[in-house]
Amino acid sequence: MATLKLPEVVPSPTEDSERLKKAFQGFGTDEKALISVLGRRNSSQRKQIRETYQQLYNESLIDSLHSELSGDFGTAIILWTYDPAERDARLAKDVLKAKKKGIKHLQVLVEISCASSPNHLMAVRQSYCSLFECSLEEDTESSVSEPLRKLLVSLVSSYRYDKEAVSSEVAKIEAERLHEAISGKQLDHDHIIWILSTRNFFQLRKTFACYRELYGNKIEEDINKCGNGDLESLLTVVVWCIDCPEKHFAKVVRDSIVGWGTDEDSLTRAIVTRAETDMLRVRVEYAQMYKKSLDEDVIGDTSGDYREFLMTLLGREK
Amino acid sequence: MATLKLPEVVPSPTEDSERLKKAFQGFGTDEKALISVLGRRNSSQRKQIRETYQQLYNESLIDSLHSELSGDFGTAIILWTYDPAERDARLAKDVLKAKKKGIKHLQVLVEISCASSPNHLMAVRQSYCSLFECSLEEDTESSVSEPLRKLLVSLVSSYRYDKEAVSSEVAKIEAERLHEAISGKQLDHDHIIWILSTRNFFQLRKTFACYRELYGNKIEEDINKCGNGDLESLLTVVVWCIDCPEKHFAKVVRDSIVGWGTDEDSLTRAIVTRAETDMLRVRVEYAQMYKKSLDEDVIGDTSGDYREFLMTLLGREK
Q: Taxonomically, which superkingdom (chains A, B) (predicted)?
């Protein structure tokens, strides 16, 4: 369900590295070459290219990209070139060190912990420790304030069972517990935090479905009835990321485009992080939710190499 | 600082597997042979033996041990033969599924999360998921009750930075926070839980030292002044496991021996889990704390193959 398209014959990492090196040489940078190489390789191929490039030229591909590029295109292609775990560790760090941390920023932590596999989250935590000399949960705890802290620390610390193990009984009991806490407007109740941060994704989807059957509303609708504070918004993101990540990312793309100007950081993050996983479904979800074409909307709000790179990740041939 | 002694020339995994297979054959089992092979190999050698044995005989070494052995000797040598992460995952499961869960049992979870490396804990969590189809934190949450649950769930979910990164400023601030919570007898305060479950071990040792400088008492002394409930006991184990694991394990050995009868499960666990890491220091600590010889005490309370196996792990040549 990826939109990323690989060439029928993938050149060797050495050929790719040589093309990249050539693109950096001479007057200016050949952005088209960067896009046509990096924008059409999957994460393990990009890893091989990073390693080969380092061996051939004794310099890091990421550093070369940093020194040659800037702006939204530079940010996007660098994020894409990182190992996915390192990319997400860096995205998390950017959020946590920012002075202003609204839901728009903090939702990145939810995406990493609820819209990725448990093993990916673990790899992100390992990468975070080696890059920043402290743990992801340590930084989350010290730089996020209540009422969001407790939830976020638990989410980023989770290592859920990652196969389908679902109990209808647990779904019923925990739907009741969630309902009880939500009805009492106790959105920071331990039950909510523990259920959302320890149960496996399949179980949680069953629990949410059970909630709807028992109480007539979707759980996020009831959460939103509690108010429109940060915790309500964050919990809604948690539910969406677990229940249907493609809906969440369709919204991220939409929010980044509507209104005045474009939020390029969010748009880049959504496309870069999902192009290899479920972007095809995000596109379908986007069309259903907004009666518009995601691709056309992205084209309408971007330009130049940045646009071309995003469209390449979206699988649009030139 | 291990007590485990390897032979000067280590036989190949094939030779070892053949000796083990032979020990199982014929009338009865040759326990001495099992001890002299398995009791003198480190974890990576035991892993190779498990793999080679499986290839050679198309059966699992662990299964063979299970079908041939019983009693305390069987339990000990099987625990020793497991991969350390699987061993600890199984120890944790035993604790969590037991009906009676006193501090003596629950402290196993603290040992795994506070007296092991962060990467080992992560491996235990992965092993737990693949063995038991649910996560360690999920089981901890559903089978431990308050006031211990919150602390234990946080501890088993931790992935601490594992190098020495210490700030005197953090030590001072967090010693104050700990003191404030302890003075107010709020041992389940979020500050206590977060500090103990997210900070790296080096930082925490500095924080405990700073606590003592500032307030004149060791932190565990002040914790114990709050009462003699389960939370007080468990927090003391946490502080010891972080500050000086060898002290904790000296106490585990001692407690397993003193009084009527022997608590073989605890004795086995302490020796099996520490023989390859810090058992030499546990022995020194034991002598200082109890003015007795750990080895002599173990000899005095055990017998037969079980005794011989433990003494082999303690590095005593026949």
A: Eukaryota
